[in-house]
């Protein structure tokens, strides 16, 4: 026996013995197949299967030799890879697009809704316009927020300037009134001294020191209704704060404490207490207190009309008042002695003094 006839055990393929299907296994397999064939697919499964078959068909070229249309075209001389119609000239710049457009049949575009032909384009246009409007709205809101914050800060700054101008006007009015009062007192003192000297009365300092002291009259409180409307709101606010503070003090003093174990109401009048004790404890109410309370409860139409103005307009009125009456420039923070010097002021507004 030659070597070629010898068996090559290294390359020999030994087939595994197949196990024969038993009768029970066959019955179970057939039962599973019958159940799978008899199962009715759901609507979603049918739609998925249809979509898969559609995509597979659209992805397959229609130039298939088994296609009847292709067979008819082949009988007329059409060859695979060729184009229908007259080929474009070599000088034509759109040759490639022409060949591509004719080398394959027109693709099928499935329409799944009942909209018109141009509906998709219209929807895209509307969506694009809505997106642009949303972007513009966001930018406008950002800009309006910044403008609103800037305006609020500017209003607060002008309100602070109005309050400062009101304080200056109040101070200058008080100085003017106190100066006029002092001048009247000096004139009255000089005339009385002159009359005493002419009559020959003795002015012994010991007599005034040993004699009974003459009670000094309290300075009457000026009602807010008699104050200039330009800074009347500042006075009323101060009076309201003082009234609230007095009310809180009266309430706290009415509560029991270590100094006053027995609680008493603010209106309680203890006959055993002297006038000085009542004044020290705050139980003696001033006559002007009730007057101020009544005044705070009343409405002031003139003040309401002034507060209804814009802060810039109120500030302008205050600046004019200070310049015309006291030759005081609110922006220069200086009181000029003459009108000629006031003409050297840059102007009436804050921008003129920058």
Automatic annotation (TrEMBL):
Q: Which GO terms describe its cellular component?
A: kinetochore
The residue ranges flagged as biased composition, category Basic and acidic residues, are 30-57, 120-160, 195-216, 236-247, 264-281
Entry-linked PROSITE patterns:
G_PATCH
Q: What does UniProt give as the signal peptide span?
A: none
Which residues lie within the region annotated Disordered? 1-66, 120-224, 236-289
One Pfam family from the record? G-patch
Q: Which residues form the G-patch domain?
A: 65-122
Q: Which GO terms describe its molecular function?
A: nucleic acid binding
* Name recorded for this polypeptide: G-patch domain-containing protein
Q: Which organism is it from?
A: Penicillium fimorum
